[in-house]
Amino acid sequence: MEIGDKLKKLRKEHNYSQNDLAEKLHVTAQAISKWENNKSVPDIINLVQLSELYNVSLDYLIKSDKELQSKLSLGNFRLEIFRYLVLSIVLVLILPVIILTKAQFFTSSHGLGTWLFIGCGLLFIIFVFLSLYSYITKKKHFIFSWISLLMLSFIVFLGFFYNYIMAVLQL
User: Fold this and answer.
1) C-alpha to C-alpha distance for 41 and 47, rounded to whole angstroms
2) CATH number of the 3-64 domain
3) Which entry of 45, 50, 75, 102 is 20 to 30 Å from 155 by CA?
4) How far is CA 36 from the centre of its chain?
5) Hey, is 11 helix, strand or coil?
6) Tens digit of each residue's pLDDT (9 = 90 or more) over 61-116
């Protein structure tokens, strides 16, 4: 028996509608329908919640479904990538601060333009990582990609017209 059939059977045994179950799991009713029709599978977090809700073991839900087991192992791979992503975010955000501190950047006064460059650079880095995170978790990553591209364009624009912008701001 595939997992979709098991989930449908368990939902009906516990007298839940797809909407009721969707509310309990914080997903859409369409997601429940896709699971039950074997068009997609729940992630590991939802599987744990389902096993607790129906008072069945995870083993019961996934043991006979080899395809689901392979997808879950792919999910573990994504989790590993996510860990490396978080580590790289920390390094990318801390490393410039260490370099700037070592170069005694913070001990001298800088103009507005310098701080604009640094702020835009940090925002660009943050949005690039948000885009990567969204891509890994299979969420809509295009918005963060566009914002990253916009921030990069702004940094380039600021670089080309730095002297003019600073002259206008000094008026």
Assistant:
1) 9
2) 1.10.260.40
3) 102
4) 26
5) helix
6) 777 666 665 666 555 566 677 777 777 777 777 777 777 777 777 777 777 767 77
